[in-house]
Amino acid sequence: MPVKVLPGVKVQVGATAVQVEGPKGKLTQPFHPSMKVSLDGDTIVVTRSVESKFHRSLHGLTRSLIANAVAGVSTGFSRTLEINGVGYKALVEGKKVVLALGYSHPITYEPPPGITVEVKENTTVVISGADKKMVGEVAAKIRSFRPPEPYKGKGVKYKEEVIRRKAGKTAATT
Predict the structure, then answer these.
(1) Over the stretch 129-141, which tens digit does the pLDDT of each residue have?
(2) What is the greatest pairwise CA distance in the chain?
(3) Which domains are present in the chain?
């Protein structure tokens, strides 16, 4: 399945990497030497030379990673985190994110270059950037500071995440 190159995106195919540049940034996506990547007009075609199970799976992976790079530099990716709990909040100071998550000290986190973090209403954190992998890693790192707990639902969770709630000790005895 070919990858369609969107308008405003420049693609350069090298021997072992594809460089993609667009309005949201510039990404380099390396690929396995046994994969052949070619640019045909406004589509990128990934082909394999061997029909083994490993090469078939590598073919799909390479195609998906290149498609994510093209989508990332044109539209970008974002993840939304929600903070639940009394007194739990977040704010942005410069490029750093300061989180108050019920500990005796605030947690300060500086995202890597190319990732932007914005806070809406003190309890919603939006992480965005061109690199899908880095956006996911930053979201997972911020979530790991206080993962949601199953009894009261307090903590940092993904917006689409559903927390399975447990009954407390009093409900178990009755």
Answers:
(1) 999 999 999 999 9
(2) 69
(3) 3-74 (3.90.930.12), 77-158 (3.90.930.12)
pLDDT digits (tens, 9 = 90+) for 32-62: 888 899 888 889 999 988 888 999 889 989 9
Q: What's the predicted TM-score (pTM) here?
A: 0.84
60, 31 Cβ separation under 8 angstroms = no
Give pLDDT, residue 173.
63
d(CA 154, CA 133) in angstroms, rounded, equals 26
- The C-alpha torsion from 158 through 72 and 19 to 139, rounded to 10°, is -20
Q: What is the DSSP letter of 87?
A: T
Q: 131 near 27, Cβ under 8 Å?
A: yes
User: Alpha-carbon distance 108 to 52, whole Å?
Assistant: 47
